[in-house]
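During the second half of the funding period, the structural biology subgroup turned its attention to how the target accommodates small molecules. The most pressing case was 3,4-dihydroxyphenylalanine, which had performed well in the primary screen but for which no bound structure existed. We therefore specified the complex as follows and requested a full 3D prediction, including the ligand pose.
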Amino acid sequence: MTDGSEERRDDLGADASAEWLSQIAAAPDAQALQELRVRLIGKKGEITQQLKQLGKLDPDERREQGQRINALKGRVEEAIEARKAELERQRLDAQLASERVDVTLPGTRPTQSGLHLLTLVTNRLLDVFRSLGYEVVTGPELETDHYNFTALNFPPDHPARDTQDTFWTTDGRLLRTHTSPMQVRYMEAHKPPFKLVVPGKVFRNEAVDVTHEAQFHQLEALVVGERITMADLRGAINEMAQALIGPGTKTRLQPTYFPFVEPGAEFAIWWTNPRTGREEWLELGGCGMVHPKVFEAVGYEGVTGFAFGFGIERLALVPYAIPDIRYFYQGDMRVLEQFRGVL
Ligand code: DAH
């Protein structure tokens, strides 16, 4: 210190100002800084004490010392404020550093849910049929013998019943073996003309293997009106196959027997078998012209109609080359994840 006040300062005690300022500058945290503030300029602080002693001095000296001490107090206050700001800045810097987000790091992908492949395929089918003007309806899975068999022209004890063995309740009802009973239920409640499709779960008492499950899904179609012909049936099946598999997909009808249609046929679509790589026919389901006995059972006259029904699983197996029908129900994420968003 070279100013003339230096010697005078000794009059009022040790010159600690340089030491104080360096302590302030080195205060490690806000609390240490506050302690220094109290010690120096608090009510009983050292500088405050010095100011209080000014009264004992004569006027000239009082003025001089007063200026000096007030200037010192000012410097101390400034230093405290500066250190306070610095500590605050350091705290903020540390916080920013610790909370820093590296936006270039790969993120944690949230688990995404998705629809099951069978749901996707069913929705796709329903979209196709809705666009062709079909109504979508559903029906009960627990059925009566009447709707599942009798009204569909399966006479009691007819061998055709044996092909559809199922699970019975003790009160004589059964888990429906096909979606065809909804043909009857719908016709009982509506007047023709109409076009409808029925998606749903069906049940069979099956020996389970790669192509058979005791529970699976079907889609049933029924179109009734005046002069509906087999050409309409062919057209509907072609439309469906092409919409699902691709333009130009071939379909085939071969005569066969179902009690509730006459003539009856099974239909197939041309596809590449993923296991052999060979192109071949895949039998998908049954179809035909609604049997007069069925119309009779629901009191319809003067109309004709066609119906078809098939297993949705088989149709999902085709485009996705799934080798075993059981994969659909095992809930294995390695299988399910492959079909997330495919449709
Ligand atoms: N309901 C039959 C079954 O599950 C399939 C079927 C055949 C449905 C012919 C039809 C049809 O609508 O006309 O085996």
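Two results from this model are relevant to the next phase. Residues 9 and 15 are 6 Å apart (CA to CA). The chain has twelve helices and nine strands.
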